[in-house]
Design brief:
With about 425 residues, the chain is an alpha+beta fold. Among the domains are: about 1-60 and about 250-395, Elongation Factor Tu (Ef-tu), domain 3, CATH 2.40.30; about 60-95 and about 215-245, RNA polymerase II/Efflux pump adaptor protein, barrel-sandwich hybrid domain (OB fold (Dihydrolipoamide Acetyltransferase, E2P)), CATH 2.40.50. About 30% of the residues lie in helices and about 35% in strands. It has 6 helices and 21 strands. Strand 16 and strand 17 (about 345-355) form a beta hairpin. Helix 2 (about 95-120) packs antiparallel against helix 5 (about 190-215). The radius of gyration is 39 Å and the shape is elongated. About 20% of the residues are buried.
Amino acid sequence: MKKKIIIGLLILALAGGGYFYYQSTNQPVEAATPTTVLAPITTGHIEKTIFSDGLVATKNTNNLYAAYASTFSVINFKEGDIVKEGDVIALLDTSDLEKSLKSAEYSLQNDQKSLNDLLNQSNSTTVANYDKALNAYNQAKKDLDNNQALYDSGIITQEALTNSQTALENAYVSYVTAKENLKNTDNSEAIASLETKIEIDQLEIDNILEDIEAATIYAPVNGTLVTVYDDINKSFNNGELLFAIEDLQNLTVEASVSEYDINSIGLGQTVKIELLGDDKVYDGQVSYIAPKASNEGGEIIVPITIDINEVDQNIKVNFTANIEIVVASKDNAMMVPYESLITTQKGTMLLISRNGEEMTIPVEKGIVSDMFVEIISDEIMEDDQIVINATTAQMTNTNGLRLPGMGGMNGGQRPAGMQKNGN
C-alpha cells in the first residue's frame, strides 16, 4: 500500500544521526547540527494494523448447468437482471424428450402385455399363488408403513409394530417362494427376462420425466444474473454452464496474510477496506482464516476472508481491495515516537526532561502502531516531556510531520497530505 511506503519514509525522517536529505524544491538539503526535540507525552487512540490486499468476491454463487443436451425455447432474463427465488429463468426445448417418453411408454406397455401372456400360459395355480403372494407382500409393506407412523405418534404399542414387521417378513418369504415356483415353470426364463425389461422400461421413463422437469430452470436464490447463455438458437451440451447467480449484496475480500503476521489475526477483527480509484473507506470483519498455509512465489501465506459490512454500487466483484486489519487498539493510551525509546540491558527506557533535567525512566511497550508506540509506566509525571535526538534539518524539513502533543496523528491515521492513488 502507498500508506506503508509513506509511513516508512516519515519514520526515517525522524531517525537520529548521520545526514538527512529532504527534497522540497527538487534540491537536496543536507542535515545541520545535531540537536534535540522536546514534546509532551500525550494520550490518544492507537492501533496496530497489518496491511495486505485481495480481490472482492461474492459470498454466494449459484451455478445452473444443463440437465441434458438441448437448446432453449425461452429465456426470460438477461445478464445483470435481478432475480428472486422461484423465478423461471428459462425453458429448455423438450420436444425430443417428449418423443422419447412416448416411445418408452409404448415399450413398457408391450412388455407388460407379453409378460401377462406368458403368465396366462403357465400353470394357473402357480400363477394364482404368485399373484396372491405379491399382493400380500405389497399390502404388508403398506401396513408396516402405516403402523410405523401410528407408533411414532404414540397411538399403537411396540408389540403391534413388531407384529407388522413379522408379517412383512413372512409375506416376503412367501413372495420369494411363489416367484421361484413361477420361474420353475416352462416359461420361467422368459418371464424373468420380461420382468427385467419392464424394470428397465420404467427407469427410462423416470429419467425422461426428470429431464422434462429439469427443463424449467428456476432461480434457486435471490441474486443477480452475472452469467447468461443468451444465444437462444445455439445448442449446448449436458452439464454445460448456462447461468450463474451471485448475491452482490453480500461481498467479501479474499486476501492472504504472511505466516509472520497470521498469529495476530483473529475472527471478528475490524478491517478497513479501500478500493483502487475510490477514496471511500469500507468497514469489514475477518470471517474466515484458512486452516492451511500455501506457498506463493516462495512466500508462505495464509488465505483469509473479510466480510464487507455495507456494500454500495461502487464495489464490484474482482475489484482489487487494499485492507488494513486492526489487530490491537486502545483509547487513552500514552504514545511516543519510536526514537524516544532506548533499549538497555535493564529493559526499555524513555528519555525525558523533567523540570529542565534530562533523565531516563523504565517503561513497558504496549501497542506498536505505524509510527508510534504505547508506553506503560507509573513513573511518568504530568509535566514530563520526551526528548528526541534530531537535527536542525529534521526539525525544519519534515513537510508537516508532527510529534505527539503537536497535533500529530494517532496510530492508524493517514499522514497529512497522503492521498490514495491506487499504488
